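Try this one yourself first.
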């Protein structure tokens, strides 16, 4: 159980911070950037969850419940990244992302994507506000994924690859979620029209 009794510690005032295993590192360290990106993605997801709470329809509420579970997972993922894998780390001795968490995302993607029409163009962020917030959370999740990819390049032996895989699947789920919310609301997808604003090309969006 985590116990927080004092919010500010002044430990980081000099540009350094403590990892989950007690070691000190620079705040510019790739590992700190990675789990900081996951925290940012969780915050963006929280805004989407709040918007879904105000949205009518069973699909929106099912998505909200799924994403509340994802927010718990993202704290697990941040804890995973915050503690470098030890040379002799015993299985189960640390909180690490599991294949089952990734598989649950894949099942959710399939479930919410199945009733949606096939796409013949890229989707613009928009439609209803909850969908736009889901798209924002998707892009922030992609940024976190890139940060973890960089960490895996720099410190592969001490980083769990499933952390990046989880974020990749989550960004896919958020894309599908945005489409599903727009479909349920009747707004539908907002599609990219290549060259729409170039003279003699494209045209006004329908």
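Now uncover the answer:
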């Amino acid at each position: 159980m985590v116990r927080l009794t004092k919010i500010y510690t002044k430990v980081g005032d000099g540009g350094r911070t403590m990892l989950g295993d007690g070691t000190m590192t620079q705040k510019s360290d790739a590992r700190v950037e990675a789990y900081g990106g996951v925290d940012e993605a969780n915050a963006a997801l929280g805004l989407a969850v709040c918007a879904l709470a105000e949205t009518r329809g069973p699909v929106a509420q099912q998505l909200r419940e799924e994403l509340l579970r994802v927010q718990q997972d993202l704290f697990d993922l941040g804890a995973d990244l915050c503690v470098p894998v030890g040379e002799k780390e015993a299985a189960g001795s640390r909180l690490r992302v599991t294949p089952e968490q990734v598989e649950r995302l894949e099942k959710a993607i399939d479930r919410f994507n199945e009733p949606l029409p096939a796409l013949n163009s890229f989707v613009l962020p928009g439609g209803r506000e909850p969908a736009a917030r889901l798209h924002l959370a998707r892009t922030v999740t992609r940024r976190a994924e890139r940060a973890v990819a960089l960490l895996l390049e720099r410190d592969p032996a001490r980083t769990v690859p499933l952390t990046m895989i989880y974020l990749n699947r989550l960004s896919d789920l958020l894309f599908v979620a945005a489409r599903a919310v727009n479909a349920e609301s009747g707004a539908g997808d907002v599609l990219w029209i290549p060259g729409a604003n170039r003279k003699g090309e494209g045209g006004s969006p329908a």
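Discussion: The chain has a mean pLDDT of 91. Residues 30-84+92-185 form a domain with the Hypothetical Protein Ta1238; Chain: A; fold (CATH 1.20.1200.10).
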